């Protein structure tokens, strides 16, 4: 490897890519970070944007600002379409970039298991635009219910279905329950938001199935205490405007609803398949890119794949889960790997330091599995809060987030509950508009 | 008038409409406030959203929250299309609402003087979506410049043109100058944002022409000190992707630019023309609805028109300007008028209490005309800050805005500088994409 002019190109400014870029701060190389967006998104809090607690800017850090003082780092707003292994180039939709080392950390996108037509009815939660669209649908459903004279249609409008009981699904129903029971209390004159039904559908037999069983049960109990209807071992067979069809064992039933949120599946960025095409990378059953113990592609030590889209088998076991801590640690690792390679020194394989995981359910309630401790309730929630604040502070200026949270907590308010985007008139949520009669006769 | 069941329908939740609703809090009547959005927008700070200082939610208050504890008030999300004077009904796109008293406060929209085709190239600043679109264009222009190898095209990308030197135009160029000279300092590797050109075009001979002449001169001097190029007595004859054509006297010239923001004209909501059709209302030369001394329509005492769309001739003089204080005072006035009418008591005509006006130019600089005092600079800026904070606090929870401002002020940061919305790839700003070559050769 030639020093100084060695060019590391990083694709993706999420936790993995940004950590890698920062870990190369003092390395004798040039770094180019390519992302489609001009900001790093603190994805673990995106559900709070979707439910009106935070604004997008609260959880976004401009990439240029984060890397401003890192002289060897260059940010490029661009969309990567392909790789050219022969010329050693990344091909964008509008240009090319040559690399010596290529780090691909392009993350995941929503995945509907072959039912892409469900996406329009049932948005997932991956981008800022996803979040504001979900926010729009949630608050618009209450608005439409307020105007709807037909009780059956009011019921469908006040039924919210979240598909998938992983951390995101659990966080979403928890927040929905707070919206219905606290935030919107007294805001309407013709409906009682307290009567909203919130359903959480899950194919496996328990919620948060990646947690130990006792924590799943704790979480389920906390959810039910908040009035959330859990439907486990339940498979979605159809989603249409106005209803979700589910199968439980042999029983098929239909749930009338105007708001369905998809939290059931993600798949790697299309760049995973492109890595297979270009470099012969092997993909695992979920489409993630299998990597060597040093995060490189077999036969291509110059190509490193990290973060959610990588399938890293830890000590021969199951692939590591797609979580921010894994991504950040892999980012720091490849930074170290490149520095060592530039100094012609060997580097031990990547080791994941597992501090545990947690999921938040709502005000003062969460479950945590930290080291070998398992706990729930208020303590877990406070731990969650502290850890997230620590992470956020790392990425910038987010004292304000804490204040916004404190404010929301004490006032039960959600200041960011704006309905923005396309005009909703005539007011339709789902298939048909409310009936036009005198809407406010006394 | 019948008591208790008397129904006041207010169209528009801006300063005028919302003040009217609140002023009817203890009145023996029902109040229905209709708005297309579920929030009141603090429009005087919208330029701070467009320039990445604040998030939309920072300047929006959910209407339902503001009116939550007002038992006689009902909020309706809806779009008014017409009025039916015979049946006494407001006609929405999806229903109708009967009124006894009708208050119309639908405000203004962008107006391009017969050149509607300019709108796509040169967005105005009226809605939250306008603001995030302008924000997107500003920050995308810098991103595209960073990637552009051709120096002439870089120059066009770094040229920002604001059309119209009223308060909004002046505020926008002031903020643009801070973005270029402070916020983005050191953020780029291939361009120097400091070299951005910021132009302010104005048809009349001076900026802020509604202010006394000495304040206009003060403002112009402050703008020029910030490197803003003022072009007064300058008329825009054409706006196309890539350039603005202007005429100064006999001289016609073209300014290559990729970012044009329209702050030159607003016109009343289409509901002004609908009031003419339905009630025979008279419109003034700018299309605003002429009202009686009690804000009612001639021949229709039950129809009150207030806020920016009303043409209220104060003591026989020029119509009052479209400003938040006028709108708020008119709102409170019609609240009082309706209460008096319901008590069968007479009400004196509306009187505007003119506390003055001000325009902010940037960090620590503004001009103010308060009572008979005229002043500029830091004192004017502090006055502006205090008054706006007072107003914002009135509408809710906005301690956070103050903290965000304080934070921005001391760090020169703009945390809300997100490029969101439609994907910009291949990267185009204006007519054509940057040339695709190796974008990061060493």
Please characterize this protein's 3D structure.
Two copies of one chain form a homodimer. Chain A has two domains: 7-36 and 78-110 and 267-342, FAD/NAD(P)-binding domain; 116-259 and 357-411, FAD/NAD(P)-binding domain (3-Layer(bba) Sandwich), CATH 3.50.50. In chain A, 30% of the residues lie in helices and 25% in strands. Chain A has eleven helices and 25 strands. In chain A, helix 1 runs parallel beside helix 9 and helix 4 (128-147) packs antiparallel against helix 5. The longest helix of chain A is centred in the first third of the chain and has 20 residues, at 128-147. The mean pLDDT of chain A is 90. At the A-B interface, strand 4, strand 5, strand 8, helix 4 and helix 11 of A face strand 4, strand 5, strand 8, helix 4 and helix 11 of B.
Placed side by side, the strands forming the largest sheet of chain A appear as 5-2-1-9-21-20
Q: Tell me the strand percentage band of chain A.
A: 15-25%
Shape of chain A: elongated
Helical proportion of chain A? Answer: 25-40%
**Oligomeric grouping of the chains:** homodimer
The helix/strand class of chain A is alpha/beta
Q: Show unreliable segments of chain A.
A: none
Q: Tell me the radius of gyration of chain A.
A: 23 Å
Q: Could you say what the CATH topology of the largest domain in chain A is called?
A: FAD/NAD(P)-binding domain
Mean pLDDT of chain A: 90
Terminal-residue CA separation of chain A? 80 Å
Q: Could you say what the CATH architecture of the largest domain in chain A is?
A: 3-Layer(bba) Sandwich
Q: What number of domains of chain A?
A: 2
The tally of strands of chain A reads 25
**What is the helix tally of chain A?**
11
**CATH class call of the largest domain in chain A:** Alpha Beta
The chain pair with the largest interface is:
A-B, 78 and 78 residues
Q: What's the main sheet of chain A like? A: 6 strands, mixed
